Automatic annotation (TrEMBL):
It holds the Pfam family FhaA_N. It comes from the Bacteria. Residues 146-195 form the FHA domain. It comes from Pseudolysinimonas yzui. This is FHA domain-containing protein. Keywords: Phosphoprotein. SUPFAM superfamilies: SMAD/FHA domain.
Length: 231
């Protein structure tokens, strides 16, 4: 499977995963992400031999019903959009001037089932936001150290008898991640290899017991409200 094939599978995951029940009708998240991808490709500008600049701030304009359905899902959907935009930019070797910001807006001029994207290049600070995807749920890492295991004393508790009460810890210093096995009974794996202590690159997969943990880092703008409404 190529990079773009993987990207398409990511789009399907947005629709068929945790958000599917909310989108039995109307505009689908898949259509919004495809529109964001087209916006990147259309606005891509070659500024140097090895640098193609694309917009990093996007306003997604929606009809009232579509807007309300998407806003009700909260930040998780915006995180999915951001991640997939980031993946497409990486695949195409695009560069951003700053962190990615995706804002949803209700626009009375938009008809149900359609979407319009406005985009801009905005230079600004990047907030590197680490998250863990576990069992269809996303957990932002708010602390420098996060413990995962089946015990109530763990920061993130997993319902898996194959894991220890405190199985692994994730360390984050603001720019880099690290994962350490905490002397677990059954051991841990990182990207399929036995794990004791290791750096944690973005999109790494940690396995503990029957639980699969994906570590991601979202390069988001630090100062933008993700949800808004046009009055």
């Amino acid at each position: 499977m190529g990079i773009l094939d993987s990207f398409e599978k990511g789009l399907e995951r947005v629709v068929n995963g945790a958000f599917a029940k909310a989108f039995k009708s109307g505009l689908q998240p898949l259509e919004v992400t495809a529109a964001l991808r087209r916006e990147l490709d259309t606005k891509a500008a070659v500024v140097a031999r090895d640098r193609i600049l694309v917009p990093n701030r996007f306003v997604v304009r929606l009809a009232k019903g579509d807007f309300e359905r998407m806003v009700n899902l909260g930040p998780a959907l915006i995180d999915e959009f951001t991640q997939l935009v980031q993946q497409h930019a990486t695949a195409q070797r695009y560069s951003f001037a700053g962190g990615i910001s995706i804002e949803l807006q209700h626009d009375p001029a938009i008809t149900e089932g359609t979407v319009r994207i406005d985009s801009h290049n905005v230079k600004g600070a990047i907030a590197w936001n680490p998250v863990l995807d576990i069992g269809g749920k996303r957990y932002p890492l708010k602390k420098a150290r996060t413990v995962i295991g089946r015990g109530s004393e763990a920061d993130i508790t997993v319902d898996d008898t194959g894991t220890s009460r405190k199985h692994v810890e994730i360390l984050w210093d603001g720019t880099r991640g690290q994962v350490n096995d905490l002397g677990s009974t059954n051991g841990s794996k990182l990207n399929g290899q036995p794990l004791t202590k290791a750096p944690l690159p973005p999109d790494s997969v940690i396995e503990i017991g029957r639980t699969r943990i994906v570590f991601r880092v979202l390069a988001q703008a630090a100062d933008v409200d993700q949800f808004a409404d046009l009055r």
